[in-house]
Amino acid sequence: MKKIVEKHSLAMRWFHWINFPVLFLMIWSGMLIYWGNDVYKVAIGDTVIFRFFPEGFYKFFNINHRLSEGMALHFLFMWFFFANGLLYVLYTLISGEWRELVPQKKSFKEAWLVLLHDLHIRKTAPPQNKYNAAQRIAYTSIIVMGFGSIITGLAIYKPVQFNWLCFLCGGYHLARILHFALTLGYVFFFLVHIIQVILAGWRNFQSVITGFEVVEDKPLTELAKEDGKTN
Amino acid sequence: MEKPIEPGKETKPEVQPEKEAADNKKLAELKQEALLEKQIKRRSFIAFGSFIVLGSAAFGGWKWLVNSDVETKTAATAGAKAPLRRALNQTELFFRRLFSNNHLVKTYPKEMAAKTVRVNGDVGMEPGFKPQDWKLQVFKGPADVLALTLQDIQALPKTELVFDFKCVEGWDQIQHWAGVKFSDFMAHYKLDKQAAMEYVGFATPDKKYYVGIDMPSALHPNTLLAYEMNDKPLPIDNGAPLRLIIPVKYGIKNLKRISTITFSNQRPPDYWAELGYDYYSGL
């Protein structure tokens, strides 16, 4: 028989779906700003491996000469990004949902097993509650990263008024690099997240909109039979 | 609880009540399943419906922002979309509250200062300018002009500053400047009444480059009227004979070749704020 299992609270769903477009706009407007002085590259010695970003990239996305627009957007949507993130953290603390999200002692070891399982190298995954060990680490890291973006962002935005923050970030120059690197981190997170969501399937995805999942609630005897089959 | 068998009903087959019970149970299960199905449908409909409606509203809001008109040009600002200009101005009000003269720019040892100081713009720097003929004009009032020579300004206490100059484009460079603190300058010439006003305006001799600075930022202890760079008189490209060095603002506000200083309670015109940039541009 079918059963409704509550999965994501309404608050969680709001935070998630507000954050998605806001973070997207922060990254987009951040790139409009970055264009003003696009000096970052990955290089070993004098050999440039990758430049952020190739000329064609700017042409394709029509990014050229939009620094003032980028700044205006960035300094508007930063408020939403900050407020949504702050409320999310407060919510998880007050509701107790942080218990499902924060990595446990065993999570760091288990995350490898989850990874091996996801890569089809290992057959079984460690038992889990709402989120597995890798998810716990990922979803907590992203909050730490968000915090880092706010700190480094403020350090760049008001380096004189928040000179102590700028100092904590290793100076204006380093704060900018960190702010940029964190953005690369979000893009990486997003790619892995999307792949995982696709692999997890529609039922999992729709639960982030509806809040619940429909599961087959099988009698114990049937479950025992299935167990016998798989073993 | 077992029901006592009534004598009158003995004729009926004994399996009947059991079958009925089983049927009833199945019926109840079916009913429950149908109810559940209904519940799933209803909740999914509400959730996806709200998701689509709110998502569309958010997208509509973005479209509205993107398609909104550019602000009506004011004396001080232009070029930004009207809602974005309002947001910039609101954000300015918030961060102005955190501004303090106690928040000083980080300073560095002289040796760390760049030998080749970056020159990033030549608006207002028309060729043929003769620094020796130059005089600074301070408009104390509409018809009350204080004209000063470089020697007058150099006679005031000199302040040196080695700090990380920050361009709105994103680059920064440690530079070494020297001049008179703007606050010392105002005090020396007893411009108290002017210092009580909201804004200061600076402009180049050709009036092609001009900036407006809020008074707290202008009077900040790091703000200089600079006439030296790397212990030598200012080179012409770096703003000779006198330029503004204001570490609490982006480079766009650090006007070179100052010709006039004005005071007002309204925002003075500002070159980059008329091209869509934040008027405050405070750091």
Cα end-to-end separation of chain B = 82 Å
Which term fits the overall shape of chain B? elongated
SS-based class of chain A = mainly alpha
SSE pattern of chain A? EHEEHHHHHHHHEH
Quick one: CATH class of the largest domain in chain B? Alpha Beta
CATH topology of chain A, what is it called?
Answer: Fumarate Reductase Cytochrome B subunit
The CATH architecture category of the largest domain in chain B equals Alpha-Beta Complex
At the fourth CATH level, what is the homologous superfamily of the largest domain in chain B?
A: Oxidoreductase, molybdopterin-binding domain
% residues in beta strands of chain B: 15-25%
Oligomer: heterodimer
Share of helix among residues of chain B? Answer: 25-40%
Characterize the biggest β-sheet of chain B.
5 strands, mixed
Structurally, the number of domains of chain B stands at: 2
Instruction: Tell me the total number of β-strands of chain B.
Output: 10
Helix content of chain A: 55-70%
CATH class of chain A: Mainly Alpha
Describe what this molecule looks like in 3D.
- The complex is a heterodimer of chains A (231) and B (283).
- Chain A has helices at 10-34, 55-61, 67-95, 98-101, 107-118, 133-157, 163-168, 172-200, 202-210, 220-230; strands spanning 2-6, 41-44, 47-51, 212-216.
- Chain A has 231 residues and is mainly alpha-helical.
- Chain A has a single domain, classed as Transmembrane di-heme cytochromes, Chain C (Fumarate Reductase Cytochrome B subunit).
- A two-stranded antiparallel ribbon of chain A has the order 1-4.
- In chain A, a hairpin with a 2-residue loop joins strand 2 (41-44) and strand 3.
- Chain A starts with a strand and ends with a helix.
- The model of chain A has no long low-confidence stretch (mean pLDDT 84).
- Chain B has 283 residues and is of the alpha+beta class.
- Chain B has two domains: 21-67; 82-118 and 132-275, Sulfite Oxidase, Chain A, domain 2.
- Chain B has a five-stranded mixed sheet with strand order 2-1-10-5-6.
- In chain B, a hairpin with a 2-residue loop joins strand 7 (224-229) and strand 8 (232-233).
- The longest helix of chain B has 53 residues, at 15-67.
- The A-B interface holds A 1-4, 17, 21, 25, 33-34, 36-37, 39, 67-69, 71-73, 75-76, 79, 157-163, 166-167, 171-173, 176, 206, 209-212, 214 and B 29, 33, 36-37, 39-40, 43-44, 47-48, 51, 54-55, 58, 62, 79-81, 84-85, 87-88, 91, 95, 98-100, 103-106, 164, 166-172, 222, 247-248, 272, 275-278, 282-283.
